[in-house]
Amino acid sequence: MSTNRTTTRRGAQLALAAAITATVALTAPVSQAAPAAAEKPSPGAPGLGDPMFPLDGNGGYRVERYYLDFDWQAPKTPFEATTTIKARSTQALSRFNLDFGGNTLHKVTVNGSAAGTSREGDELTVTPKSPIGKGSSFTVEVTYTADPTQTRHRDDAIEDYGWIPTPDGTVVYPQPNGSRLIFPGNDHPSQRAPITFRITTPADRTAVANGRLVSRTARPDGRVRWTYDSEQPLSTQLVQLAVGKFQLVDSEGPGGIPLRDVVPDALVEPTAAYRKLTPDHLKWLQERLGPYPFNRYGLLVGDTDLGVALETQTLSLVPKADLLGTKVDAERNMVHELTHQWFGDSVALKGWSDLWLSEGHARFYEREYSEQHGGDSFEAAMKTAYQNHDIWRRDYGAPAEPTEPNLFKRMRYDGSALVLYALREQVGDATFQKIERAWVSGLKGRTASTQQFVDLASKVAGEDLEGFLHPWLYGSKTPPMPGHPDWVVDPAV
């Protein structure tokens, strides 16, 4: 996600996270346990215990695939929806939870039989007719009415998220945990699964989603069914599903990468010049990071007033204002979201405290590219970030130790890019590039944590970087910048 706009609650979250973690531990498999058939069924944990959002995600099972069936009708109009979840239990389950917020629930079945349900906040608790054995495959079907006007708000860079109406349809902003407004699931960035989208629309609308268009089928009633396959697993925060009067503009990137831009009819020509820069952006990033990690890419031009772009996997959402402004600003956001396809999408976050790895890298390469293509000095931007770093640490938390209300504040952007800048200054550019390539190639398609990054950087550099990186990532005071003894940090008073 990018934007160029410039407690005690924390203690309660940590306590809840600790309690949930203990629950997960108690219900997790034990190495010396009896055979799975003899395990007594127990409830799956209602959350994964993430300190930012303790109830996000769920314990006791892993999703193997989602099937989303949406009967979309018209802008700002509720419609009928069904989510089918293929999952496998990791413990014997007496009941389990789904993250699901705000939609009108109709019915839940497990393996074809009606299941008991209860709801509290965003937690939908499902009690199957019969317990689910450990290691068993099972199918959950949830029917509900979706409301394409349902949004939530954050007072940081995210702003409004969830379903975002457009003049002739909708787009979605699922980050950080808005996918539960779209469909029930296991809503945490570490939980990845492939998705099949089946979206029915009026004949004059186009539906798009992550991945490959499998089919477009005209129905006898005049409506059209669009089927998409995400192709690779993705985190729920990276889902995209949009409907509108779009044109699909196909082209080709370096090495034959299929490119598909999704553009509102009236914006095709006005945005064409900047959209055609994507192959150049891909080439520039591949020279630094190696092969693009997915099968295809493209831009979804958002006909909204939100000033937020989003790295939805293989189809980045970019607001129209970004593509109707200056070339420098447009390219900054385009490169930022494209960089996320490596950092945050392909290599996913293990927890929300690892967000600095995603946003910091996106801002790092965005600023490096911009400096080389008519934008501001990268070094000057980092010197300014260094000057403000202690203030940001005080107000927003250290780069790898955010607080929930400040998760998407400046520290996760320029403040985190500064950590990578310091690492490059410490180990040298050649070693830094080796670290970056090792990270995105060795962890492609996996989730990863801050500690894994520190360990990998140390291994590649041939020196223990824990003592160097830990103060940058967690300390209350900003360390000296290698190679820049004249840089000064403003005091946080």
UniProtKB/TrEMBL annotation:
Keywords: Aminopeptidase, Hydrolase, Metal-binding, Metalloprotease, Protease, Signal, Zinc. SUPFAM superfamilies: Leukotriene A4 hydrolase N-terminal domain, Metalloproteases ('zincins'), catalytic domain. Residues 1-33 form the signal peptide. It catalyses: Release of an N-terminal amino acid, Xaa-|-Yaa- from a peptide, amide or arylamide. Xaa is preferably Ala, but may be most amino acids including Pro (slow action). When a terminal hydrophobic residue is followed by a prolyl residue, the two may be released as an intact Xaa-Pro dipeptide. Pfam families: Peptidase_M1, Peptidase_M1_N. InterPro entries: Aminopeptidase_N-like_N, Aminopeptidase_N-like_N_sf, Peptidase_M1, Peptidase_M1_aminopeptidases, Peptidase_M1_dom, Peptidase_M4/M1_CTD_sf. Its cofactor is Zn(2+). The keyword NADP does not apply. Residues 65-238 form the Aminopeptidase N-like N-terminal domain. Residues 113-132 are annotated as: Disordered. Residues 282-472 form the Peptidase M1 membrane alanine aminopeptidase domain. GO terms for molecular function: aminopeptidase activity. It comes from the Bacteria. This is Aminopeptidase N. It comes from Streptomyces atriruber. The lineage of its organism: Bacteria, Bacillati, Actinomycetota, Actinomycetes, Kitasatosporales.
